[in-house]
Design goal:
Helix 10 links the parallel strand 8 and strand 9. The strands form 2 sheets. The protein has an 8-stranded parallel β-barrel with strand order 3-4-5-6-7-8-9-10, surrounded by 5 helices. The protein has a two-stranded antiparallel ribbon with strand order 1-2. It has 12 helices and 10 strands. The chain is 40% helix and 16% strand. By secondary structure, it is an alpha/beta fold. The radius of gyration is 20 Å and the shape is globular. It has a single domain, classed as TIM Barrel (Alpha-Beta Barrel), CATH 3.20.20.80.
């Protein structure tokens, strides 16, 4: 009898461990005890190529990106972030501050949309990416002075909060905008400004060719600073195994990557490709890559999570009929309702 009791106890213990592992692996925004992701993970850090929690355990953050705050900044508010946290199981919010195309350089009041995002995320126990959204301006050095001033202010104001992640250069692009000649020198200046006020929070550096040439950064990485990551972007309908191989080479060389933007579509925002998304989700899970999906908007593009003109006031509380096919899919992914192998 004792033998059977011992065997039963051993079996129960195995199930207990499996249950603990499964619960830990669900990547919850708020756990069953009501603790937010920031309460559980605390101060993030880089160990090797992994993003880790305060205890040194690898973690994978998953969440959503805003669209340009000057176009769709109405969603950068506490109501929407709370809805994404509680209904979508979103751990991370990315505030995309475009510089040109009507963005921050001509409308510096947009800074307050970033501040709204940051303060809502702090209040809700979410992580927040402060995204300096280099795009059609191509070279981050074009507005370097504004970047230095912006990140100096953000680091002074919020650097003591573990919620903050700085994304200092979204998508540098162009044949003349090289890693060693343009992007790395810019990054070193911005990192130095941030580190004067914030010695610990994660800083993510964009990479050449719309943040795809992570292998170029791996050949000449930034040294002298801790907790630095590098940006990898993809759109599943346009990018596949070749970019995955490039990312693996960069990681093998020691680079820590963060997918701060990815889409379910072609890189122009059209044509939802769920079949091509699944290999990427498996790849990111395998390599423990954190991510933010593009994007929260109602402009009617296939990569947006809302149907055209839905939630015009930016209040959250969306039902299935408000969501695009991509939105329905992303919600299931974030809620762990679709199995990722």
């Amino acid at each position: 009898m004792k033998k059977y009791v011992a065997a039963l106890c051993a079996l129960c213990f195995v199930f207990f461990l499996a249950s603990c592992s499964s619960d830990k692996d669900t990547r919850l925004a708020v756990d069953k005890d009501g603790r937010t992701v920031v309460e559980r993970y605390g101060q993030l850090q880089i160990i090797g190529t992994n993003l880790c929690n305060e205890a040194g355990e690898p973690v994978q953050l998953r969440g959503m990106s805003s669209h340009g705050l000057h176009w769709h900044g109405k969603y950068a508010n506490r109501d929407v972030l709370k809805w994404l946290r509680d209904d979508w199981n979103t751990q991370l919010w990315r505030a995309a501050l475009y510089l040109t195309e009507g963005g921050y350089i001509t409308g510096p009041v947009l800074k307050f949309k970033v501040i709204d995002s940051v303060e809502a995320a702090i209040d809700l126990g979410m992580y927040v990416l402060i995204d300096w959204h280099v795009h059609r301006d191509r070279d981050p050095n074009v507005y370097k002075a504004q970047s230095l001033a912006f990140f100096d202010e953000m680091a002074q104001k919020y650097g003591s909060y573990p919620n903050i992640i700085y994304e200092i250069c979204n998508e540098p692009n162009g044949d003349d905008v090289t890693w060693s000649g343009s992007i790395k020198p810019y990054a070193e200046e911005v990192i130095a400004v941030i580190r004067k006020h914030d010695p610990n929070n994660i800083i993510i550096v964009g990479t050449p060719t719309w943040s795809q040439d992570v292998d170029k950064a791996a050949e000449d990485p930034i040294i002298g600073y801790d907790n630095i990551m590098y940006t990898l972007h993809f759109y599943a309908g346009s990018h596949g195994e070749e970019l995955m191989a490039k990312a693996e080479r960069a990681m093998d060389a020691g680079l820590a990557l963060f997918v701060t933007e990815w889409g379910t579509t072609l890189d122009n925002g059209d044509q939802f490709h769920p079949d091509k998304v699944m290999p990427w989700l498996s790849f990111m899970r395998k390599h423990n890559l954190s991510w933010a999906n593009w994007s929260v908007n109602n402009k009617g593009e296939d990569s947006g999570i809302l149907k055209y003109n839905k939630d015009r006031n930016g209040k959250g509380g969306w039902v299935d009929s408000d969501l695009s096919p991509s939105g329905l899919f992303l919600r299931k992914i974030l809620k762990n309702e679709i199995k990722i192998k």
